[in-house]
Every structure is written in structure tokens, then in C-alpha cells.
Write a structure and sequence with these properties.
Strand content of chain B: under 5%
CATH class of the largest domain in chain A: Mainly Alpha
Distance between the termini of chain A: 58 Å
CATH superfamily of chain B: Transmembrane di-heme cytochromes, Chain C
Number of domains of chain A: 3
Oligomer: heterodimer
Largest interface: A-B, 63 and 61 residues
Order of helices and strands of chain A: HHHHHHHHHHHHEHHEHHEHEHEHHEHEH
Structural class of chain A: mainly alpha
Number of domains of chain B: 1
Shape of chain B: globular
Mean pLDDT of chain B: 97
Number of strands of chain B: 0
Largest sheet of chain A: 4 strands, parallel
Structural class of chain B: mainly alpha
Helix content of chain A: 40-55%
CATH architecture of the largest domain in chain A: Up-down Bundle
Number of strands of chain A: 7
Shape of chain A: globular
Mean pLDDT of chain A: 96
Number of helices of chain B: 11
CATH topology of the largest domain in chain A: Glutathione S-transferase Yfyf (Class Pi), Chain A, domain 2
Chain lengths: 424, 220
């Protein structure tokens, strides 16, 4: 990477300014309602976390370079200058106190997509050298090793052996011409190995052909989180290449939120090419199997369950009904949190916040909104379908001494499969 | 200009033309500045359409979601009240309709004067409440700039001068009417260069966001 500088940051920011951005900044009347949508403001009460203020660097550049009036003001020297000092001041606002959950974009009365502008502003932050060290390291590891946590294939290979021993099934690796290329997240491989066993069982049960790729098993995209198109595009390209090599019809993003938005929505734009395959979240795949009658389940969970929608999956991708259809297949006592689906509250860990140690206290503060929601419903267990959300929920609930286990929906489905050969 | 009639003729004549010209040209420039930037081509396979959801959001953002309403009832209710009140007074007061008719040959039925008068009083009261809220609410106080207060004044003046003129509280009447028209001219001149542009651009913003979410299959 060439030297990072304010000039490079400004170039990156200019590249992000488009008609929606101009319409958004022209429309903000500082009503402050976006603060009421933000877990970081709601739980800290500190007005500096008002979402629209987080994108002030982008706004300044837009005003000074893309409006007639702003150019006149800049010429006579009115208004703040976009400097390294300012970007440094904004770094914690853009990275530590924003998960890009998009709730502000859903609430803004003038219709500003603030989350999209945070994503854009981060491009300028990276290029000018103002990204948090935790995310820089994760991005570097992702480029170097394929995994933001530095996980190697041999770790996964060891896990595959465990899964094969415990399930009696084969985990397909580098198998060409199958239906799906399955991706995993490092977080899952390390913390939630039950996911791999669950999909192995489910796909065997449903007769789905699939494969892992030795060259490209990582679904997550640190480039999206830090805000670097170059890094993000490189990571997406690896998946696209593996999918082409395996000649698959679809690529399945695992129980991870941002990995899905990265491959599903940003990916094709990062490589500037439509995919020759479908990009799907595991919830979409499972729900389609369910609707085709290919998931034969027995028994239901009887305890009181509730669900956390990952922001990237629900609000930012429209996967909302699928997980509820699947839950109703295997649970009889399910109750949604009051604000769920497109209006769900973020767990507080997304958008790279969990990779940024400096933000640890804020991450737990933001979690209090989720905690309050969970307390209202008082479930015995929580279900989710994102490894980052799940880790955050587990950590947060433990911290507040709430004895509520968190389960992944895929593994819950797998536990209820009718065994092969047995009558339903 | 020193005599009341002279002042009224000036604000109704040359000043009005200047204000309209600055408003029209300024707004056109703003629109060009926005749309010229365009949007990058989107290669991601859509889950839903853009156009329908775009127009849907253009309407639906007028009313807050239940959660936001519960957390910020003042903003939602008072914000809506004064915006609707402002529009009623602007568009349904019979002398305003007659003015628009004389300029554009467009007409529609108005509301009886006492009704508009009551709406104006409520709107003025709501705007004062909004200002107090801006000065006292921690978020609003923190994020407000001088421009926010400037556009409050620019919005308040046409209402208060109109109200005072209608009730003959400023004399002589030509001065009252002249001040009202002059305040509207200030509003028009400021509009393209301040956040008052949101009157137009908020609908563009809503459309874009509705379309972006709609493409992903999310109702926004």
C-alpha cells in the first residue's frame, strides 16, 4: 500500500460522494432523531454519538467542494477545514461508536441513509491513515492468511476430522461441480464448531451437494469493516475465483452478518461484475429447503425462546421471515423481541467494533439496549444466526449475570432432523 | 420607500421579482449539483425493485415508527403539527390562493379565515416550542449550528408577520403587509443556500433510501 495521507483520504472521500450523499446532506435539519435510533447514544446519553455528526468529515468535503455556496464560503475562509487533526478526532466516532447497523437510516425523517455514509466516510479514514489498530491488524491478517483471526486451513482440517468422526459423514473439500460452495467465519471455526457439523448433517439429510474450498473458506471481510475497497475487493475476488473453480451454482455465507452483506451486496460492486452464481445466507438456503419439504424434523423445543436479528441480515439485507419460518419448524414457545426485523436493535459488536479493542467499553454499553429488550421478553434461551452477535450476546449476558444461553439456529435445526431411514 | 405604500409597492414589485429569481435559479443550481453526481452502477442482483419502494418511503417517512415515537414524542408530534400547520396556512389561506392564481392561473378551495387563523396560532406556538426544545434538549443543543437558528427565524417571520397583519396589529396596514411579503422574500432567498432546501431535497433523499432498501427487499 502506498503512503497514507490526508490527500489520499480526500481523494477516497471524493470518490464516495454521489447524488444520494448530496441529497442527504442537503436535507438534514439537525432534528437529532437519529440519536434516538442509535444504541451508542441511547445507552450513554452522550450527544457526541449522534449518528449524523459521525459523518461530518464527509459533509464538510461535500459542502466545500460540491456546492456553489460552500465553495464561496471556503474561498473567503468561513468554516472548518478538513484536516488530519479533525479526522483523528473523528476516528473513534466513526469506528468505536458505530456498528453500521443502519437503524438511523431507517428512522431519519428526511430519509438520510446515514449508515451508508459512515461506510463511505471510513474509506477516507483508511486512506488517510486514521483507522483503529485492531481493524488494521485484522485486515492485514485477512489479506495475508485469508482469515482476520489468522486461522489456517490445518486448524479447520482438524475440525473437519472431528465433525466427520462425530457425524459419520464426509465433509466435502474442493469438490467440483456441486451445488454450493460453503464459506465459514473464523469466529465460527474457533468458537462455534457445531455450525460445520450442523450443515454437514442438514445437507446430507436434504440431499444437497456442497463443498468447502481449501483456498477460500473464509466468509468475513475485514475490508468492508475497516472501509477499504481495495482490501474488500481482494477478499471478495478470492471467493469468486474459488466459486468459479468449483463451478458451483451458489455460495453460502455462514451465520455471520457482515460476511453476507459483503458477498451479497458489496461484492459485485467491488469487483465491478455481476456474479455467475447466487450469493445466499445459510438462512435463505435452509428456508428454501423447508419450503420444498426437504427438511424433515421431529420434536420441538419447549422452552421460551426469543431471537436476535443480525442487522446485516435483517435490516440491511431483507432476510427477516426466513429465520422465523425455520424457528416455527422446531420451536413451539417462541416470542419475538418487541422491536425486531427491520427495526431490531444492534447487539453492539458489528461493523468492526468487536475487532477494535479500544471500543470494548462502548461495545458493552451499547449492548445494554439489547439487554433491555431481552429483559422485556425474558426468554430462557436466545437464538441468533451471526457468530459475532452470538459472541457479543454471550459475553454481554454473562457480564450482566443473566443466565440465558445463546444458540445458533442452524444447529438447532440440525438437532431436530429426522434420522435417515426412519419413518417420519 | 419611506412612505408605507412605497414600501409595499417595492416588496410586491422589484423585490418580489428578485426574490423569486434568486430562489428559482438557486434551487435549480442545487438540483443540478445533486443530480450531476449520479450513482454508480449497481452490479448486485436485486432482491426487490427500487422505484415502488422509493416512492413508498417518500410518503411513509412523514410518520415516525412506533419505537421512535415512544422515545421522542415531542419531536414527532410537534414537528408534524407545525409542518402541517405551515402548509395549511401557506396553501389554504384564501388570499394566498388568490395570489398563486394570479401568478400561475391555478386555484383550489381554501379554508375559512377563522380556521386558518387558529391553525396559524397553533403553528406559531409549536414553532416557539420547537425553538425552546432545540436550546434545551441535549442532542439538539449539541448538534445545532447558527444556520439552524437562522432558518428557524426565516420560517418564523412569515408566520408571525402574517398573523400580525391579519389581526391589524401593525399599523399602517401597508407596512404590515409589506413586512409579511418581505419576510417571505427573505425565506425564498435563503432557501437554496441553507437547509431550507430540505423542503425539496428531503423527497429526493427519501426516494434514494427507499430505493436502496427496496432493492434489498427491505421496507423502509
Amino acid at each position: 500500500m502506498t503512503e497514507l495521507s490526508l490527500q489520499r483520504g480526500l481523494v477516497a472521500l471524493r470518490d464516495e460522494i454521489d447524488a444520494p450523499v448530496a441529497a442527504f446532506f442537503s436535507s438534514c435539519v439537525h432534528c437529532g432523531l437519529c440519536a434516538q435510533a442509535c444504541p451508542f447514544y441511547v445507552e450513554t446519553g452522550d450527544p457526541k454519538y449522534t449518528p449524523i455528526l459521525k459523518v461530518e468529515p464527509l459533509r464538510l468535503l461535500w459542502e466545500q467542494e460540491y456546492t456553489l455556496w460552500g465553495r464561496i464560503k471556503a474561498m473567503v475562509g468561513i468554516g472548518r477545514k478538513l484536516t488530519d487533526e479533525m479526522l483523528e478526532e473523528w476516528e473513534p466516532l466513526l469506528y468505536d461508536s458505530c456498528t453500521m447497523c443502519g437503524r438511523c437510516s431507517m428512522v431519519c425523517p428526511v430519509g438520510n441513509d446515514i449508515q451508508a455514509m459512515v461506510r463511505k466516510t471510513r474509506e477516507g479514514m483508511v486512506a488517510s491513515g486514521h483507522a483503529p489498530v485492531g481493524l488494521i491488524e485484522a485486515s492485514a491478517r485477512a489479506i495475508r492468511t485469508g482469515s482476520p483471526m489468522g486461522l489456517k486451513w490445518r486448524t479447520l482440517e482438524a475440525q473437519i476430522k472431528h465433525v466427520e468422526a462425530s457425524s459419520g459423514l464426509t465433509v466435502p473439500v474442493d469438490k467440483e461441480g456441486v451445488e454450493y460452495l460453503v464459506l465459514l467465519s473464523s469466529m465460527e471455526v474457533i468458537n462455534f464448531p457445531e455450525y460445520l457439523e450442523a450443515i454437514t448433517r442438514i445437507f446430507d439429510h436434504a440431499g444437497v451437494t456442497w463443498t468447502l474450498s481449501k483456498e477460500s473458506f473464509e466468509a468475513t471481510n475485514a475490508g468492508i469493516q475497516i472501509g477499504s475497497r481495495d482490501i474488500a475487493a481482494e477478499l471478495v475476488q478470492r471467493i469468486v475465483d474459488a466459486a468459479a473453480k468449483m463451478r458451483v451454482q451458489g455460495v453460502i455465507s455462514p451465520e455471520c452478518g457482515h460476511a453476507y452483506t459483503a458477498i451479497r451486496w458489496e461484492g459485485p460492486n467491488l469487483i465491478e461484475k455481476a456474479y455467475p452464481f447466487k450469493a445466499l445466507h445459510i438462512m435463505e438456503v435452509l428456508d428454501e429447503l423447508r419450503s420444498k419439504g426437504k427438511l424433515k424434523t421431529q420434536g420441538k423445543e419447549t422452552d421460551r425462546l426469543s431471537m436476535h436479528d443480525p442487522c446485516n441480515l435483517a435490516r440491511k439485507s431483507g432476510v427477516i421471515d426466513q429465520q422465523r419460518n425455520l424457528v416455527s419448524l422446531v420451536a413451539e414457545n417462541f416470542l419475538d423481541l418487541e422491536e425486531h426485523g427491520r427495526f431490531q436493535w444492534c447487539c453492539g459488536a458489528g461493523g468492526g467494533v468487536s475487532s477494535n479493542e479500544r471500543a470494548d467499553d462502548l461495545r458493552i454499553a451499547a449492548f445494554k439496549r439489547k439487554k433491555a429488550q431481552i429483559e422485556e421478553v425474558q426468554p430462557e434461551r436466545m437464538i441468533t444466526m451471526c457468530a459475532t452477535c452470538r459472541t457479543q450476546l454471550e459475553e454481554g449476558l454473562e457480564k450482566f449475570h443473566m443466565d440465558i444461553p445463546v444458540v445458533g439456529l442452524t444447529e438447532m435445526i440440525a438437532e431436530h432432523l429426522v434420522e435417515k431411514g426412519k419413518p417420519v | 420607500m419611506s412612505d408605507p405604500m412605497g414600501f409595499l409597492l417595492w416588496v410586491k414589485g422589484p423585490m418580489f421579482e428578485w426574490a423569486l429569481a434568486i430562489f428559482a435559479i438557486g434551487l435549480a443550481v442545487r438540483m443540478v449539483e445533486i443530480f450531476m453526481l449520479g450513482r454508480k452502477f449497481n452490479y448486485a442482483e436485486p432482491r426487490g425493485s427500487e422505484i415502488g419502494p422509493g416512492f413508498r418511503t417518500l410518503i411513509t417517512r412523514t410518520v415516525a415508527d412506533p419505537g421512535t415515537f415512544a422515545r421522542a414524542p415531542f419531536d414527532v408530534v410537534v414537528g408534524l403539527v407545525w409542518h402541517v400547520g405551515f402548509l395549511i396556512v401557506l396553501l389554504l389561506f384564501i388570499p394566498h390562493i388568490e395570489l398563486i392564481n394570479s401568478m400561475l392561473s391555478l386555484t383550489w378551495p381554501g379554508l375559512p379565515n377563522p380556521v386558518v387563523d387558529a391553525v396559524a396560532a397553533v403553528t406559531i406556538f409549536a414553532l416557539v416550542a420547537v425553538l425552546i426544545h432545540r436550546i434545551t434538549h441535549p442532542v439538539k443543543k449539541y448538534i445545532s449550528t447558527s444556520e439552524d437558528y437562522l432558518i428557524w427565524v426565516a420560517t418564523f417571520l412569515p408566520l408571525i408577520t402574517g398573523y400580525l397583519a391579519y389581526h391589524r396589529l401593525i399599523n399602517p396596514y401597508p407596512v404590515a403587509l409589506g413586512l409579511h411579503i418581505f419576510s417571505v422574500e427573505i425565506f425564498l432567498i435563503l432557501l437554496p443556500f441553507t437547509k431550507l432546501t430540505h423542503i425539496f431535497t428531503a423527497f429526493i433523499a427519501r426516494w434514494y433510501t427507499g430505493a436502496t432498501f427496496g432493492r434489498k427487499g427491505v421496507v423502509s
